[in-house]
Design goal:
By secondary structure, this protein is of the alpha+beta class. It has three domains: 94 residues, Beta Barrel (conserved putative lor/sdh protein from methanococcus maripaludis s2 fold); 87 residues, Elongation Factor Tu (Ef-tu), domain 3 (Beta Barrel), CATH 2.40.30; 131 residues, Orthogonal Bundle (Helix Hairpins). It has three helices and 23 strands. α2 packs antiparallel against α3.
């Protein structure tokens, strides 16, 4: 009796499972298909852009140094500080300059006294000579003495101008409004002529320095609008070619092109690497597969695209991407020519979803 009960229980369970499966399958069959648009993959033998590497830098930047040697008394700013034009940044010990300035001031006082005395003698002998009370020789001597005193006073004043100019090199000030980007000295360091002490740049205005191979430089024209891909922030910016070098003498066979970036709210920084895409069609050595960037599906570090299976369902396929060309991206692997991929859908796609091609 117990064995009969067990057999009945198993039979009922199997029947219920079978009915449940049919019901589930029936529900799945009743799910409406998602309407999608598809494109056919086409291999392109032409590269729509000439791509070269470049580096972003501020349009207005400066490395500040001094023309005098001395110990650093104080550094008044830190990296990241915003400064105004003329603001004091670094103070260098100028005790020797102060001593020289005191000597020059004393020399000016002495030269002024000698000049005033010579001037009085000159005016007195000038009157005596007019009254025929002084000889020509005496008048010539007084004139020469006056001119020499005048020259000595002028030389002393120019020495003061020189020492004042040297004082400007002991107090390093900001040449324009900007932000401090680097600080290479601290209190007590010895500042040497030509050694960069402080770097400053104006934020918000950037340019790209790109190096173009000699085989392509003749095709680059000033004023051309280009795309600049900044991979670190995954952004494509617009820019315009402002300079094209005609010599590679000091750049190792690469020609320099400068691109002024359009003003943008994107958080870009000096030193970021970029890829500059000049709109010059070139014949590729191998065929390229380009698909719209809007069709890409991302999951963490993975990139994929929905393709169409033989049973008209969406099939997610992981792919490896290459260069970006405006609104298209190169597919390096995972997608073959003449395959169909889904461009857009009127519903949320998932792997295995029923689709209806529009």
């Amino acid at each position: 009796m117990k064995n009969i009960y067990t057999i009945l229980t198993v039979t009922v369970a199997l029947l219920l499972a079978s009915c449940g499966g049919d019901s589930k399958k029936s529900i799945e069959d009743n799910v409406p298909a998602i309407t999608v648009k598809v494109n056919q993959v086409e291999a392109n033998g032409n590269n729509p852009f000439l791509s070269v590497s470049g580096k972003i830098q501020a349009t207005n930047s400066a490395d500040l140094s001094t023309r005098m040697m001395g110990y650093v008394n104080n550094v008044h700013v830190n990296v990241g500080d915003k400064v105004r034009k003329g603001q004091l940044l670094v103070s260098i010990n100028n005790t020797d300059l102060q001593a020289k300035k005191a000597q020059i001031n004393a020399g000016i006082t002495e030269a002024t006294a000698a000049f005033n005395s010579a001037k009085k003698d000159y005016n007195r002998f000038k009157n005596l000579f007019a009254d025929n009370s002084a000889s020509q020789k005496e008048m010539d001597d007084m004139t020469a003495n006056f001119e020499m005193a005048k020259a000595r006073l002028e030389a002393a004043k120019q020495m003061k101008n020189e020492i004042n100019a040297q004082f400007t090199y002991s107090n390093i000030t900001a040449p324009f409004n900007g932000t401090i980007t680097s600080k290479n000295v601290k209190i007590g360091d010895m500042a040497n002529p030509g050694m960069p002490l402080i770097s400053i740049e104006t934020p918000g205005h950037f340019e790209v320095i790109a190096m173009v191979p000699e085989t392509e430089i003749s095709t680059i024209k000033k004023g051309t609008t280009v795309n600049v891909l900044v991979k670190s922030i995954n952004k494509t910016l617009k820019g315009k070619v402002t300079e094209v070098s005609t010599s590679a003498k000091n750049t190792g066979g690469q020609y320099l092109a400068k691109i002024n970036l359009n003003k943008t709210d994107t958080n870009i920084l000096s030193g970021m690497f970029a890829t500059v895409q000049f709109p010059i069609e070139r014949k590729a050595t191998t065929s390229m597969i380009l698909i719209p960037t809007d069709a890409i599906v991302t999951n963490g570090q993975l990139s994929g695209i929905y393709t169409v299976s033989q049973s008209n369902t969406a099939l997610l396929r992981w792919i490896r991407l290459g260069k970006v060309f405006e609104n298209q991206v190169e597919v390096l692997s995972g997608l073959n020519a003449d395959e169909a991929y889904i461009v857009s859908a009127e519903g949320k796609l998932f792997n295995g979803a029923k689709i209806s091609i529009q």
